[in-house]
Amino acid sequence: MKKTKRIISFISALAVMSGMLCGCTPDSAKETSAEPAAAHQVLDVSAIRAQDDFYGYINAEHLLGTLPAYGEMTWGTFEEVDAQTVQEVLGLISEIVTSEEEYEPGSAEYLIKNVYDQAMAFDDNKAVYSEIRSLCDKINSVGSIGELMELWKKLYRSYGANTPFVPTVRQNYFKSGEFALLIDQSKGMCGNSYEDILGSDEACISMKNYMRDMLMAISYDKDTADSKAKQAVYLALEIARSTDFSAGKAANPFAAFEFVSEEDMNGIFSNLDTSVVKLFFGLDENTYGGWYVKDRGQLEKMNEMMTEENLESWKTILISELVTANMEFLSTEADSLSEYGSGEEKEYSVCVNTIASNLFFVNDLSALYAEKYYTAEADAAVREMCEQLRQSYRELISGADWLTEDGRKALLKKLDNMRFILPDAAVSETDPTRAELIKESYPQTLHAIRERSYDDNIGNIGAKFDMTRPIMATYEVNANYNPNNTVTITAAIMHAPFFDPKADIGTNLGGLGAIIGHEMGHGFDTMCMDYNENGEYAPDWLSDTDRNAFVERAEKMQGYFSDYTVLDIYHVDGKKTSGENYADLGSMECIVNILKDDKVELKKYFENYAVTYAETRVDSYAIDALESDEHSPGKVRINAVLSNCEMFYEIYNIKEGDGMYCAPEERVSRW
Ligand SMILES: [Zn+2]
Fold this sequence. Notes:
The chain contains 29 helices and 14 strands. It is an alpha/beta fold. Among the domains are: 248 residues, 3-Layer(aba) Sandwich (Collagenase (Catalytic Domain)); 149 residues, Orthogonal Bundle (Neutral endopeptidase, domain 2), CATH 1.10.1380.
């Protein structure tokens, strides 16, 4: 496409303002802008025409009053709903902990209430401090790397000390219904990211100072702590240099994993063999015959560094991780930790927040949240909407004459098999053995909870992956398509403006409808096309003819989106955002097909759709996100998509020369 569209006027005006507030606007972004003055002065929101910038026309006034808070990178509709949901979750916990009711041992309420009571009553730093110190003595007395790893595993399981590599048991995306052993890429150590330390001396120094302070907390003198921390940073830098940062940012989060057999893994961990890997997975034997790894080079480097001459540095790292994970118990006994915000008084709000952010309670809180906020009325309305969307997709796919007959049949089958996982799938069963997690004291209870979480995760090895279980907390403002051909919709995303059972059909379709339509659309994006009608990995599922037809259409669309820019000069990466743009485009076509020529409801749909992805971003984030986020910026998600919609042109009287105008031959279509 020849014409370059500009997505600037509104977003950059806001972004520059908020960027200045946060002090993080890169000068280059302003100076090299083609029309800096014009671009950055659009504050007269009434002058924005729907025909030129529909997104700005709908959202400008509201967004001007909601710049990102200090320190935040972005703010928008999702964040607004999220803030409301957080209050609801905290309210839920409050109700439980202030109630006089006797809860059944092992129930969600029983655990929450007891953990809260213990947290509030905790005031003994001394005992925990001496416990951590004696663990550090133990670390220091270790004589070999192998021994250190054994101790590390124990401290990881019970005390939350992060490990050099990240062992997880998760859904196997390549074998339907199974779990897989994954070794994810490590992002960094001791709360400092590899990418940061590689990019700046300042970050290295701050990592060094951080580790030094952790060591000083267990009574190393400053000089010794400083020199030990320096050595550990050198080790971290070595690993950082061998880290493939693009693997961490891949648009397809699981295609980045490669399967490594047991034998191959012995080669990667040549210094310690696979026993070190098995150790962290709590295994004597790997029943899957291997592991999925995300960054082989990083693991090879870790292995290379796991030699006796680096033993002291690994000890420093383990001590730092151990102190970090237990900082909340140590503060008053350790001066060097005071600046890390530890030792907050155990007051009501701190304790409630602690429970809300503990992953152990996700299922419990999900079930409680759904019970309270997910109504039968919403359930019926959302289920009806899902079926409406399915029917519309059925029509679109049936009418896609560029597919072969077999291809069309296959896609329709996949659509029919698609399952919706709604909030009522969130369950928390009362399990009497969970009552035993409540120990004598708060720190002991937290150890028991950590151990239980670890054991539960490891316990999935060899188990069947339940395809009907929700894969995220239902109090998360989100929805998701899983390649196993399920769409999860949370209760939290059923808030206005996304959804209200009493709202008009067009309004609900513009919010939650567009979101569900988007997730369903992922079932047919380039990545999920490798999964057959049953959600099983089968890359040869579709014929080459159909696949090539998809690729051809996708390429045109990639070019179309790449022409959009942020801050005048930074182009959207059409290739990287391809899957998400495809989903957005499909969702729009699906909904317009439902509303046909009902202009009243279509108008409500367009308007609420624009609200759904309303956001402001600080400049630096707006630029970074082009690389780190597989979604297009909110403004592009609205304007670029609607510029392809015939009914949009008709309703808003879009003409050649308008900002929203795109010549018919340049438009793209999903179906
Ligand atoms: Zn998506």
